[in-house]
Amino acid sequence: MSFHPINDATLWAAIFSTFMPFVSFVLIMTLTRSRRRLSAGLSLGAITVSLACSIFLLCSNWGIEKPIQYTGRWLASSSIAIPYGFLLDPVSLVMLVIVAAISFLVQTYSLGYMAGDAGFSRYYAFMSLFAWAMLSLTLSPTLLQLYIFWELVGLSSYLLIGFWYEKFSATQAGKKAFVMTRAGDVAFFLGIILILLHLGNLNILEVNGAQSAEAMSPTMITLAALLIFGGIAGKSAQFPLLTWLPDAMEGPTPVSALLHSATMVAAGVYLFARLFPFFSLSPTAMGVFLTIGTISMFLASTMAMVDRDIKKVWAYSTISQLGFMIMALAAGGREGYFAGIFHLTTHAGFKALLFLCSGVFIHSYHTNDIYELGRQGARSLKVPTITICIAAAALAGLPPLSGFFSKEAIMVELAGLSNPVWLVAALSGVFMTAYYAFRVIFVVFFSPLEEDQLEMGQVSSGHAHNSDHHLLQYWVMACPLILLAFVTVFLGLCEVPLRHFLIGRFGSLAVHDGGGPSWVPYTALCLAVCGVGLAWLEFGRREARQIGFVERIPALSTLFAQRWYLDHLYRLLVDRLIDKGISYLFYKNDNKVIDGSIDQMCRGTLGGGRFVALLHLGMIQYRLLAAFAVLVLLSLYFFL
Questions:
Q1: Whose CA, among 161, 343, 550, 631, lies 20 to 30 Å from 60?
Q2: β 80-88/68-77 pair status
């Protein structure tokens, strides 16, 4: 489209919303690393500008009828021109606001959580890098530009997960996340190349257009979709690349909140929504996506039912909820598209709230163990206690919270599919989600206090807010919790206008539009209430032994605690296939072929040198012998 860049407020808002965090990152790393307050101020100022610009873009473009695209030449070689620009449409505008808002709240919260950390400035630099990469990914108009920032998101997440690099477990978790997501990204890149070879360009609007069906055969579309989904599975921790996400909890808790709510893992679902019309051209690929989302949702839910680490429980929950989103999108249709994005939106709020509340408890009591938090009296922290209950209820899908509306939309869409197995699996996931979410709540807030706390009538010394400094840190962390709780309570009321905004442009999309029977929402709600009730019976009531029904079956408990032995399987594959297979072949090639050939050349050179040296010893008999040998050979050659 043509535009006047000097007078185009939309373009300038897009530029400032994406580039300000990058400017902050550069300034912190080059100039202000030794000045903690200035570094934090730069980072917060940049993300505040990004948030203001993203809200402006959403409000000014609310109800747009067609996407707005700005592109300019970035690189050129001969007849090849690589563009760079911005793509503004409903899904990118909504995602832009989500990323900017959660990043702003997490960075504000981090002022209290990371106050005494030696790497305070470095932390905010990495936060700015992360925000720049994710915001730029969101507005990318081409798959190549999206892939570049996709990889930068992976780099910055690696830096943040392994932020406390002095801990061996943190460095291992960072490497595991980086390697497993790169495995999916290789498939993603191959899918991009396949599309480029057939379409001749990587513009997202053209990839989603009718020309894809004309230029590519159904087989090629399916193959490209499956390859791109490899990147989605890696980034969003879906089966089989799901075990890196729980280990990523080694990073600071605000990092976990950012990873799980609005960035990195949500990038995979966003890419699915971004290429939804293209993926919809292949029913086979959509069926595969639906299967993978269902398996991921189920496996992660079972893992969360037995873990004692509060952050890992929410990490498994993230995998499960992302599985729900992929199930909704893979179900197809405008309503499935809306249900997936709507759940992504509501999930960003209550999942950030869950992690940030948990961070307050961990910061105060220095433990991630839910039973230990309960014994030490975590319930005395009123703001995180109330807000985490709200977030857990939203996660469980209880009304009138936002999670209820988005999860019911998914259930209704799945009920419209011809195969009932998808709905049954989703309903079982609803029950398990409510159970493990309130298992954490009841253990943390209903566990018997330690004897010394009962005698003193107060919490343990781990929570010492008796100074103004600690009180200030507490309220710096508490204020974002209150804002997120407000969003969690009222965001569900935005369902109707958000639906109209997101799916109005898909009026002519020729894919299935589901619509389940009216009993589905009531069944889902009953199962959620049953999950909460079972959790209360086992963990909440006064006589409860606080041992779950799964934990009473040792074999099943071990299976879930060991993540269905997926890590063991990966370890076996690495040992047998890579270490004893590929690596062994490379070792043999290096020793026998490369080193062996060089050794033989050296031996030949050495032997030749010794023979020549022998001829130059100055002894006449050797020279006569050589002359005689030459004469004999010449005679044989000429006479025979």
A1: 343
A2: antiparallel
Spatial distance between the Cα atoms of 312 and 308, rounded to a whole number of angstroms: 8
Strand partners, 364: none
Average pLDDT over residues 72-88: 81
Same domain flag for 579 and 597: yes
If asked whether residues 440 and 588 sit together in one domain, one would say no
How many other C-beta atoms lie within 10 A of the C-beta of residue 521? 20
pLDDT of residue 634: 82
Is the distance from CB of 249 to CB of 161 less than 8 angstroms?
no
DSSP character at residue 88? E
Whether residues 531 and 392 fall in one domain: yes
Residues in a beta bridge with 85: 71
Token look-up 């030449």 returns 73
Distances (CA, A) of 78 to 75, 91, 142, 145: 10, 35, 20, 20
Give the contacts of 144 (CB within 8 A, at least 6 positions apart): 82, 192, 202
- 453 has pLDDT over 70: no
The whole-number average pLDDT for the span 262-287 is 90
The whole-angstrom separation of Cα 11 and Cα 210 is 27
DSSP label of 449: P
Nearest to 257 by CA among 384, 429, 102, 126: 102
DSSP-based three-state secondary structure for 309:
strand
Domain span at residue 425 reads 286-453+513-561
- Regarding pTM above 0.85, the answer is yes
Please check whether residues 525 and 619 belong to one and the same domain.
no
Is the dihedral angle over the CA atoms 503, 262, 300, 358 positive or is it negative?
negative
Kindly report the backbone phi and psi dihedral angles of residue 76, in degrees, each rounded to the nearest multiple of 5, phi listed first: -140, 140
User: Coil, strand, or helix at residue 62?
Assistant: coil
Cβ neighbors of 304 (< 8 A, separation 6 or more) are: 312, 313, 316, 317, 320, 432, 436
Same domain, 301 and 350: yes
For residue 219, how many other CB atoms are within 10 A of its CB? Answer: 10
What residues contact residue 24 under an 8 Å CB cut-off, 6+ apart?
A: 42, 43, 45, 46, 47, 124, 125, 128
Q: What's the CA gap between 9 and 552, in Å, rounded?
A: 62
> Six-digit token pair at 469?
């400094």
Cβ neighbours of residue 451 under 8 Å, at least 6 residues apart? none
Could you tell me if 535 and 410 lie in one domain?
yes
Q: In the chain, what's the furthest Cα-to-Cα distance?
A: 118
Number of domains in the chain: 2
What amino acid occupies position 580? K
- Tell me how crowded residue 285 is: count the other CB atoms within 10 A of its CB: 23
Least confident of 78-92, 362-376, 581-595: 581-595
- Number of residues in the chain: 640
572-606 as b/e: b if 16+ CB within 10 A: eeeeeeeeeeeeeeeeeeeeeeeeeeeeeeeeeee
Q: What is the dihedral of CA 265, 267, 273, 274, to 10 degrees?
A: -170
Q: Which of 161, 193, 180, 201 is nearest to 79 (CA)?
A: 201
Q: Give phi and psi for 448, each to the nearest 5.
A: -65, 140
Using one digit for the tens of pLDDT, what is the confidence trace for 629-638? 888 888 887 7
pLDDT tens for 4-28 read 455 588 899 999 999 999 999 999 9
